[in-house]
Amino acid sequence: MKKITSFIVTVCCSFTIFAQAPANYYNSATATGYTLKSQLKTIISANHTALSYTPGLWNLYSSNATNNGFRDKYYENDNTILDIYSEKPVAVDPYTYTVIADQCGNYSSEGDCYNREHLIPQSYFDENAPMKTDAFHVWPSDGKVNGERGNLPFGTAANASYTSQNGTKRGTSGVAGFTGTVVEPIDEFKGDIARAYFYFATRYEDFMDDFHSDTTQTQTQVRAMFDGSTDKVFNTGFLDVLYQWHLQDPVSARETDLNNYIYNEQGNRNPYIDNPQYITAVWFPHLLSTNKAELVEFNVYPNPAPKNTIFISTKEKINLITVYNLEGKLVKKVSNPQFNDEVFTINHLKSGTYILKLKSGKKTSTKKFIVK
What we know:
By secondary structure, the chain is an alpha+beta fold. It has 9 helices and 12 strands. Keywords: Hydrolase, Nuclease, Signal.
């Protein structure tokens, strides 16, 4: 069955906690931008207790805890391993895994056994702790598909050379600025993966430059996702993709369960599950609004746009419309636009995530929109 989502995308200055974070857990997270990321890093590092690789992670996956999000309580609800590479949200899964009994082991085909998938491949951090056993990015998955992914980046695959039985694709990159090979998960888990990456960039903020500059890691293909900095962390093309995935696939009941479950076992949380808007506040703080009285009231639709056209509706007199891509480059500028029945149309937009800004007198408003 289709998962239940619990998050509506909005851009504002107030933050809503979605999972069950302890009282005052985020009290010291008061800034915006990369300063906020550093504050969150301090919070989620304080009581992080590294699990063992064996048997720690295996035991974590197999626990009968009611909030163990590594087991399927959300689709077939059969308590098998929830594998992002075989789960079919609205159809019958091609195969399922029984905990413990189906641990890898050797494999040659899909459905043979499940192992431990590092969303950020462990070759990137030289298999060091605590990254190697951090349950927020080490998930049970089909051994064969995990092997097909190897240490490739996640991204949008333009042409698939391999497709798993649930539709996970490996193929040539559709990510701006990268021409190599990527792996694209199914839509159902894109946001989950994106928020795991944003967690990793925050929890290990002070190591991100070392990971990137380590000469032994130059052949690790996932390195292309990162820019070597401790603040922005990601190359722009991949940041764009992760942000799109985060917006398109909101926090699910499974993620909320995982956050609480891992907190009980590992002692820390993923702040971007507790508060999805922290991602905007860290990487795109210019999108945060502060005073509603100073905002232009408008809607943009469809969002995401399936084609290259969006519509803007407002009752206010608009002086200026500007559209930027996530690199901050001006894509379109319209002065004194002429609305037809309170609607203005923008055409010929390429696929991507954009920032739309409207100005009416002294008032301005900004919204994100996506073109598929």
